[in-house]
Amino acid sequence: MTDRLRTKRLLKIWIIILVAAGLLGYAAFQAEALYLGPRINIDSPTSGISTSTSLITISGSASNISYLSLNGEKIFTDEQGIFKESILLSYGYNIVTVSATDRFGRKVTKSLQLIYK
């Protein structure tokens, strides 16, 4: 084998390896939603607080979701996955529930316990 043929062969092998590595990396990145599932992060308010106002704003972020609800009512996120919704609290003890479902049907729920005095 001449040096020129050997160089061509090595170049082809390296190109195949780089393309395969790129495809595997892309597949792993796209599979993130599959193995992580839906995620909810509630920034405000924190669970267990007491408030003297009946109108309170629930804010946070969600990722890998296809459906998001606050106390059973559908809410929406912006392009970055951030949500912000205001609700009225009943006098006394309140439980606020945020639920998310992903495209594979997996569901995650977070609850806040709030007291309106």
Outline the fold blueprint:
Blueprint: H1 3-30, H2 32-36, E1 39-44, E2 50-51, E3 55-63, E4 67-70, E5 73-74, E6 82-88, E7 92-101, E8 107-116
Parallel strand pairs: 2-8
Antiparallel strand pairs: 1-3, 3-6, 4-5, 4-7, 7-8
Fraction in beta strands: 35-45%
Inertia-based shape = rod-shaped
Can you tell me the CATH architecture of the largest domain? Sandwich
Number of separate domains: 2
The count of DSSP E runs of length 2 or more, i.e. the number of strands, is 8
Give the spatial strand order of the biggest sheet: 2-8-7-4-5
Report the CATH superfamily of the largest domain.
Immunoglobulins
Spans with pLDDT under 50 lasting ≥5 residues?
none
Find the CATH topology of the largest domain.
Answer: Immunoglobulin-like
Average per-residue pLDDT, rounded, comes to 92
* CATH class wording of the largest domain: Mainly Beta
Largest sheet composition: 5 strands, mixed
Helix coverage percent: 25-40%
Rg to the nearest angstrom?
A: 24 Å
Number of helices: 2
**N-to-C series of helices and strands:** HHEEEEEEEE
Work out the oligomeric state of the chains in this entry.
single chain
**Structural class determined from secondary elements:** alpha+beta
How far apart the termini lie comes to 87 Å
InterPro entries: Ig-like_fold (IPR013783)
Organism: Candidatus Taylorbacteria bacterium CG10_big_fil_rev_8_21_14_0_10_41_48
Protein name: Bacterial Ig domain-containing protein
Pfam families: Glucodextran_B
